[in-house]
Amino acid sequence: MSSVLIKGGTIVNADRTWKADVLCADGIIQEIGENLETPAGAEIVDAAAQYVMPGGIDPHTHMELPFMGTTASEDFFTGTTAGVCGGTTMIIDFVIPNPKEPLMDAYKKWRGWAEKAAADYSFHVAVTWWDESVHKDMGTLVEKYGVNSFKHFMAYKGAIMADDEVLVNSFTRARELGAIATVHAENGELVAHLQNELFAAGITGPEGHPLSRPPGVEGEAAERAIRIADVLNVPLYIVHNSAIQALNAIARARADGQRVFGEVLAGHLVIDDSVYRNPDFDFAAAHVMSPPFRSSEHQAALWKGLQCGTLHTTATDHCCFCAPQKAAGKDDFRKIPNGCGGVEDRMGVLWHHGVNSGRLTVNEFVAATSTNAAKIFNIYPKKGSISVGADADIAVWDPEKTRTISAKTHHQNIDFNVFEGMEIKGANTVTLSQGKIVYKDGDVRTVKGAGRYIDRPPFAPFYDALKIKSAVEKPTAVKRGKKAA
Ligand code: URQ
Ligand code: ZN
Ligand code: ZN
């Protein structure tokens, strides 16, 4: 049994920090304690003056996504490899059926693509259309395939956009199954209208992208999804919140006791909308993603959202398109494939701008990069925790290690890095996946196909209570007899 003993480090969980050694073997954390014995043949990791943290969980990636007439350049092997190089040891990606494509067919297709992953992964499944077969497949996915989250794109009219009928049917089904509903909150009708208006007015370059998706487009959809989820009594997770309007919608709902969770991308926290006004098309187009990067007041609000508990997780929406792919929209910004990279740099960017700035404690950093996603998607403490019996997915983190982010040195399969030139302090020196060292001081040791699909069980306890509630409050028909004489 090959084992790894991490010695002399300071363990950081979301809820506590303490000095202890960590022994990993057989894919899990076997023992935690001071001055542990070194088993024969164990590989030693000297973690002195370093933190020992749960490996990052990125709950929002799109490896090798077919989208807008092309396919994302990062695949499940290169993408999970880039992730572990930056301290992220699990991704939750997306199965996105085309309208009328059976959900089970799409699920099996994505599972095939993900076989090559180097680290653990799971899938949210998007509901992009509705009929009885979708209702049935959602049940099969929850009951047999470990899916507990269903995604709804409120944007992308004419492609994968879910209208209110799909939202209402799918949210209702998610509640029945004990699953969580998640949304990409942008009003697709408004986006299409503004895109066409801008293009007709002669705005054809990437500067048109943010103009066609102003904050109000996101605020409306966030509020609508929240209201529908409230009426239907289903928990809701809003991905890549980028605007104050969405934050306000979530904060109001949570203050009202509604179960709504918010995600923010590392990019939206530190990159502003000036990128779209860069005269170089390739530079501006490389930043075209939705929702767009916004002006600085939105970033300040997003950091506050993370600090105060309106936002719970950080992600990247890692969806890579290289310059030749982005050039599809050279004369029409509506055709630029939407998506940026980030899976390798999320943890470092969050540490530098979050912990070094004093915005987040080290424990809050762990919560935001790993533990909260594990709890929301029901895989805690197997994931998102340094505890005996948990998976040995670990980032050994040197708070003094400096690096400059660049496409010249990153492991991501994309010719651009949205954090290009950013100098950061704090980085993983060693990453373990399933108790094996997959990255050590620049040495990449990932193995294609070593990653596992992680089942995520439904949220039975919450729903049992809900069933009791709805049974108690079951509406009864009013008996109407003949009018009293
Ligand atoms: O919308 C998403 O999350 C996918 C299609 C990635 N692209 C993007 O612009 N966010
Ligand atoms: Zn999205
Ligand atoms: Zn996405």
Please characterize this protein's 3D structure.
The chain has 485 residues and is of the alpha/beta class. The protein has one domain (54-388, 453-463): Metal-dependent hydrolases (TIM Barrel). The chain is built from 15 helices and 21 strands. It has helices spanning 76-85, 103-114, 132-145, 164-177, 188-200, 208-211, 215-232, 244-255, 266-270, 281-286, 296-308, 323-326, 346-355, 362-376, 460-472; strands at 3-7, 10-12, 17-19, 21-25, 28-33, 43-46, 51-54, 56-58, 66-67, 70-71, 88-95, 120-126, 149-153, 180-184, 236-238, 260-265, 313-315, 394-404, 423-433, 436-440, 443-444. The strands form 4 sheets. Strands 8-11-12-13-14-15-16-17 form an 8-stranded parallel beta sheet. A 7-stranded mixed beta sheet has the order 3-2-7-18-19-20-21. The chain is globular. It starts with a strand and ends in a 13-residue tail after the last helix. (2S)-3-(carbamoylamino)-2-methylpropanoic acid is lined by residues 62, 67, 184, 289-290, 317, 319, 338-339.
Brief summary of the model shown:
This protein has 485 residues and is α/β, with parallel strands linked by helices. Helix content is 34%, strand content 21%.
